[in-house]
Amino acid sequence: RTQIQIGITTRIISTTMNNFIKSSSTLLRRCAAKKQVRYHHPSPFDPQTTKGWAAALKEADLPTTVHDAEVKRGLEIGLPGASSIEDKTIPTFSRGELPHFAGINTFMKAPYVENIHDVGKYDATVVGVPFDGGCTYRSGTRFGPQGIRRISALYTPYNYERGIDLREQMTLCDAGDVFTIPANLEKSFDQISNAIAHVASSGTFPIILGGDHSIGYPTVRGLASVTSKRIGIIHVDRHADIQEKDLDERMHTTPYFHATNLPNVRPENLVQIGIGGWQVPRAAVPNMVDRQTNIFTMDDVETLGIEKVAEMALERAWDGCDAVYLSYDIDSIEAAFVPGTGWPEPGGLLPREALKLVGLVAAEGLCGMEVVEVSPPYDHADITSLMALRIVVEALGSMVAHGTMGKAKDIFDKPFVPF
After folding, report:
1. Model pLDDT for residues 111-142, shown as the tens digit of each residue
2. Are 202 and 347 in contact (CB under 8 A)?
3. Which of 228, 292, 226, 232 lies closest to 259 in space, CA to CA?
4. Cα separation of 213 and 233, whole Å?
5. Residues with Cβ < 8 Å from 178, sequence gap 6 or more?
6. Read out DSSP for 206-259?
7. What are the backbone angles phi and psi of residue 278, rounded to the nearest 5°?
């Protein structure tokens, strides 16, 4: 009996000791974990090593002068708010950025310049080109400028990552739309060239909202007509757009055949990024080969990377040129993200790749830009228009951040002569 009792006692003591050792080991491991310093990644609270905190700290350096003046003016012309409104910056009538769902839809609620002779007072001018007479499949891009302006009310002028505020660091206006002529390509082209030539010669940066891509020719023609300098083009698209004619006219598949016929726009300074898929007509290919344009497919983008493609594109577009123009076709982006376009083609750029590319290209400075082929009737929840908007503000933000906004305005050294 005594031996049995001793055995039981021994097992109890052994079990107790094992439990104690396990508990102690667990406690020690937890204490060690609390004291552990992880060296394999930076501290998220160190502004020297993370962009997130650096951007947060940069905001305090931005002025609020223009914002404050806008609020003051809103109260003066929009009537002070009702006595029950605690925020005394809110007027009775919406005048300015807020609320985003109200107000008149100019581009990002920029001032509407009705007198076109006043655009030279601004760093940049938005021009709508509501034209889809060059479409060869789905139309609707004549509503592109409206769609982009409408969704632009969603945005503020401040970008967190870049630490910039467009309202405070540049001036922007909206000049409204070009009066295009439905069913007449050539008359519409003359109207478009007239408009862009006037805007560029006024010393303001032209931002063109299309419209189908047939406008790519008259926009460049307008710029080229008011400068003695040479212009390169960076053209982002899934389609080559360099046929001489399509359906017996200068449709949206033809702009860069005709643009590179201009004496100060050489084909060797035309860079085409994203070309490929099952929608490049064979009729375009001999012209690409004959004119020795610079072509990057999506395979090139994947193999080389966005940074290298942008570097190579800038080198070729700027070679021997005094300025570069950006033509961005929204269908260059993967079709799942941009349903509202006339010729959607799967396999294109992802949105982040597109924005990265635009930012890198614009950092060097541009003489103008266009976003084309946005067709709101085919869009869903405005996501295509939103992407087009983001392309524009990404370019503006990059130029502001790198101090290149207005860099090219001095190249426009010839007087405006109406077409």
Report:
1. 999 999 999 999 999 999 999 999 999 999 99
2. no
3. 232
4. 14
5. 127, 128, 129, 130, 131, 191, 192, 195
6. EEEEES-GGGHHHHHHHHHHT-SS-EEEEEE-SS----S-BTTB--TT-HHHHH
7. -105, 20
pLDDT digits (tens, 9 = 90+) for 307-348: 999 999 999 999 999 999 999 999 999 999 999 999 999 999
Count other C-beta atoms under 10 Å from residue 81's C-beta.
Answer: 16
Kindly state the tokens that stand for 44: 């998220």
Distance CA 86, CA 359 (A): 40
Q: What is the pTM of this model?
A: 0.88
Residues in CB range of 348: below 8 A, 6 or more apart = 238, 274, 277, 298, 331, 332, 333, 334, 335
Residue/partner pairs of 100-104 with CB below 8 Å, 24 or more apart:
100/153, 100/154, 101/153, 103/153
Whether the per-residue pLDDT at 7 is higher than 60: the answer is no
- Rounded-to-integer distance, Cα 181 and Cα 202, Å: 24
pLDDT-derived band at 369 (thresholds 50, 70, 90) equals very high
Alpha-carbon gap, residue 393 to 409, rounded angstroms: 19
Classify residue 384 by burial, with Cβ atoms within 10 Å: 0-12, 13-18, 19+. buried
